[in-house]
Amino acid sequence: MGDVNTAQAHYQPQGKVNPIGAQYGHVLVSEDMFLAMAGGRKPLLATSHANKTGLSQPPPEAGDWSTWARSVKVDLPAARAYAQAVYAATDAILGGMSDQDLERPFDLSFVGMGMQNVAAALNLTILNDFSHTGEISAIKGLQGAVGYKE
């Protein structure tokens, strides 16, 4: 994401693919929310980064987010600052977790997975990041940019 510009972030590919900016925003908000719940704290978007996520509007909590994805505007510098804060909070939360914390119940009903544990929620967060990173890379490629960098 470091080399993505505003035009690339808002480029709307053909078909059902969502823009890079929306993919990025979704990943950041999801990680912030899931890690906040797992770590027993409020998400950054509701505290230190309230109205400073770089997103013109937050993504829907669950369900189809394609309408949001096609209308959201992303302020990349603000989103990148939010991303750095999310990553630091993630590191702090994960660094402070014990094996017992990973086994705590975690309600994933809002994504159709019912009651799980914190470890399952963290795994879902990783898989979400993984899949959207691939989509971002592909959309960059559609625009003639380098997707993954070594």
The CATH architecture is: Up-down Bundle
- At the fold tier of CATH, the topology name is Four Helix Bundle (Hemerythrin (Met), subunit A)
**Average pLDDT taken over every residue:** 92
Number of strands: 2
Spans of 5+ residues with little confidence (pLDDT < 50)?
none
Q: How far apart are the first and last residues' alpha carbons, in Å?
A: 13 Å
Order of helices and strands: HHHHHEEH
Q: Helix content range of the residues, please?
A: 40-55%
- Biggest sheet character: 2 strands, antiparallel
Radius of gyration: 16 Å
CATH superfamily: dinb family like domain
The structural class is mainly alpha
**β-sheet strand percentage:** under 5%
User: What is the CATH top level name?
Assistant: Mainly Alpha
Number of helices: 6
Shape: globular
The tally of structural domains comes to 1
Strand arrangement in the largest pleated sheet: 1-2
